[in-house]
Amino acid sequence: MHRALKGILAVATFLVLFPHTAAAQVGQVAGTVRDSSGAVMPGVTVEVTSPALIEKVRSTTTDGSGQYRIANLPVGTYSVAFTLAGFSTVERDRIVEFANHQRQRAVYGLTEFADAGGLMSYSYSLVEQYRAAATFVDKILKGASPSEIPVVQPTRFELVLNLRTAKTQGVAFPRAVLLSADRVID
Questions:
Q1: CA 151, CA 155: separation in Å to the nearest integer?
Q2: What angle do CA 97, 114, 163 make, to 5 degrees?
Q3: Residues 142, 121: contact at Cβ < 8 Å?
Q4: Which helix (H) or strand (E) holds 176?
């Protein structure tokens, strides 16, 4: 029983020390819906679906200027659907595909998004964060008091550039940015 309590305490401490790992990795889907002539479209239902959502679906309706925003979305792969009576439904399988289609130059918070075709990502190293978390859990399980373990902020960040996406969007990264990238996708 005492060992189980230590395990629960270790997990709770991990969530306190690394709340950004558990909760802060969120984003949003926002924009303006326009028809093929460029006119804004109020009253359009915008729906995002994902296994990352507990409720599986979140939706909103565009305002009078055709704008919408769905906030606090956890990291994951999303489908986005736009529906309005009298118009055909438009759906995108991935947020990256949607952003690229809209020629939105996005910087993503996880390298997986750049790998999936996003323009670029800048993120702390997940590998380093998990190593640090394992060290904390190990210390707690060996008897250290969580209050005596210092909080460690991320020190290693990774910049990933996707040159294929940059080319399709007409983006030319300065040489200094290319040289400072941890990884470049050709």
A1: 12
A2: 95
A3: no
A4: helix 175-180
Which two tokens mark 169? Answer: 């969007």
Measured distance CA(24)–CA(118) in Å, rounded: 20
Give 122's contacts (C-beta < 8 A, 6+ positions apart).
Answer: 107, 108, 109, 157, 158, 159, 160
pLDDT at 19: 46
DSSP three-state, residue 31: strand
Classify strands 26-32 and 67-74 as parallel, antiparallel or unpaired: antiparallel
Read off the pTM.
0.48
Per residue in 104-154, pLDDT (tens digit) is: 788 887 777 788 888 999 988 777 877 888 888 899 999 999 888 888 888
* Extended beta strands in the chain, E state: 26-32, 45-49, 57-61, 67-74, 79-83, 90-92, 107-108, 120-124, 157-162, 183-185
CA-CA distance, 172 to 153, in Å (whole number)? 32
Q: Tell me, which fold does domain 27-102 have in CATH?
A: Immunoglobulin-like (2.60.40)
Q: Which one-letter DSSP state was computed for residue 103?
A: T
pLDDT at 108: 81
Strand 183-185 to 157-162 pairing: parallel
Q: Which amino acid is at 113?
A: F
| Sign of the four-CA dihedral 90, 95, 97, 99 | positive
